[in-house]
Give the backbone structure.
Amino acid sequence: MLENYFPILMFILVGLAIGVLPVLMGWLLAPSRPDSEKLSPYECGFEAFEDARMKFDVRYYLIAIIFILFDLEIAFLFPWATVFKDIVASEPMRFFGFIEVAIFLTIILVGDAYAWAKGALDWE
Amino acid sequence: MDFKTTVFFFLSAILIFAGLRVITARNPVHAVLHLILAFFTSAGLWLLLQAEFLAMVLVMVYIGAVMVLFLFVVMMLDINLDQLRQGFWKYLPLGAVIGILIAIEMGMVLGSRYFQVLDSEVPGVAANASNTRELGALLSTDYVYPFELAAVVLLVAIVAAVALTFRGPKKTRYTDPAAQIRVKAADRVRVVKMPVEKQD
Amino acid sequence: MFNDFVAPSLYPAAPEIFLLFMACVILLVDLGVKSPRRTLTFVLTQLTLLGCAAITLLTSNTEVVYTFSGMFVDDMMADLLKLLVYGAVMLALFYSREYIQDRQAIPKGEYFVLALLATLGMLVMISANHFLTLYLGLEMMSLSLYAMVALNRESAISTEAAMKYFILGALASGLLLYGMSMIYGATGSLEITEVGERLYTYSVDKSVLVFGIVFLVAGLAFKLGVVPFHMWVPDVYHGAPTSVTLFIAAAPKLAAFAIVMRLLVSGLITQAADWQGMLIVLSVLSMGIGNLVAIAQTNIKRMLAYSAISHMGFMLLGIVTGVVGGDARFALNAYSSAMFYVVTYVLTTLAGFGLIMMLTRAGFESDELDDFKGLNKRSPWFAAMMMFVMLSMAGIPFFVGFFAKFSVLQAVVAAGYYWLAVAAVLFSLVGAFYYLRVVKLMYFDEPKIQEPIEGPLFIKVLVSANGLAVAALGLFPQFLMSLCAYALMRSLT
């Protein structure tokens, strides 16, 4: 089974090389003569006013939570989707296999509709 | 050492490095990014154990969603790094003792009879066998009840998240271009008729 | 691939399906309800519970029915406990109506929906015959309860309580899961009755199994709130809004009893010698620490929390004495005494917290012991009701708490644990002190507050009926006792 994943390993290695090599080469080959002016942050000629980091709005949090929930939902649907052809092909399972996932999705959709109608997804 | 073992050691080395960086990085955002790397490499290890679905879920759910949430939280809290470091040396002796004790316990447990690696070979799996399909078959037949219950638990989570964090629509002022275009002169200017007043 | 598939029968799970459907409907209907009183949401919630009770009664039969590939069990014990859960939740929601009305920060619609989803979790737990469904039911209930504790967002103490509850609850769930995985490792099955059969038929790896049982019992002890896994109970009882405290103190205890029965008695009865020893330690510690620490409390919610710890310890005595040295003659007697104990405790605690909530107003919690001073002068009737509750919890004859304690002690003596019976009686005597102190405060001290007790007539009648039931069941305990015994006889084979 693992041999099927060999291309993916190769892909990751090549991707890693393409990402890492230029940085590494730049680091090794480029001339580097830093002084304090070069290293200071540039802000339109002014001294930097404040830290670049700033607090995120709490509303991101709600969006992220809801995103996790839908992500989990997909994780549940994925195995079902892989056997979907077999479900459709077998007589006793055809109806049941559809209904069970319809119920699953409806339950999640109720939550989605609730969050939407409540205005929790509005950004303004 | 065959190819699989090489990959295993390669991934394990990255995993241990990333795990160490999670607890030693000064910047919490760097710690979260290293945690992502740790998750990714452990997904690779799971793949080596032929748990392809678990590996996929780890990448999709943990890296895709949970770590996004982690990043938001870290950025939202705006953690003060210096405060976090306070009292490190004060608590080090106690922490070290507990850490060493746990390490000894782990060694004893892993060295005991019940946790030895079995001699038998892992049963070979055909090239086109897919445990995601097996999971799908079980999930839609025998395990349909827990499957639906999981949906209800997710529903509870949505309701709880909205009820606890949502504080009503924000009353911000913003421009609505459609309303700006639709407006007529009569909406803006009110012509008031009044008799001319004599100046005294 | 699926050609020998047979669709599971949905009939035994009809109450759960109806409850889920209605919870979804109410969640959506509530979006359109604009009135701050949420009368429509409230009425629909109560009607849903009533409908569930009707369905449970109609589908109930004396046989044990399995469905969903053996993951769901419907027996008499499940039916009886479910009916009691509906009753406890309905009463809790009636009592909490005015309370949440007075507190602006609590979102009203979500309160009822979360209560219904927590109820659904309890039903799933009660009917669980599989580690996985048991765990999912537990999580469904716990998640809803964590959210309900935190619903009063303006209160820092509620948020802190919710945080503690959540972290310790998650830890407990982890312990429980770890125990389940160990037992799965030892027996190769996740189905509880199947685990029981395999343990009976095959010899399994004893050390892995005992390892699993230790974690399982620790997880259950967390959920029951018995010493030394009780740390969350006082903080949660104290910090949660009183209406939520009432909710947590009542129906979930019934569900917790059900999972103890399912896991330890249906699944691991062959290992009774292993878990009984652990339960004895938990039970004696709970009765001791619960009763002793309760004396030092000045807040009645905290006091009742420690009292809950001691009561759960007492209830465990009934579970401990079921099987003695492989002799299961007294099993039915012991388990039904434990069940009777839980049921009567839930009834009494409902009345107790219902009365506390009658004394609250907007901005005034009335949860200090001093707030009960001179209650007799303000309202002799409700002072009498509170006295009934306190006397019953103390186990004074002839209130229902006395018979509950008596039947458990009978089981303990029949099993031959004389020292355990003596310890239980001694600790109950210690407990009587702080219950009677409340009675003393109500009758012999001067009131700090003079206002009469206000509230809708219906709620007053309901609380009174609840208080009178505590007294009346003490005079006629036989019916409920034999009901518990009958349900268990039909369920345990």
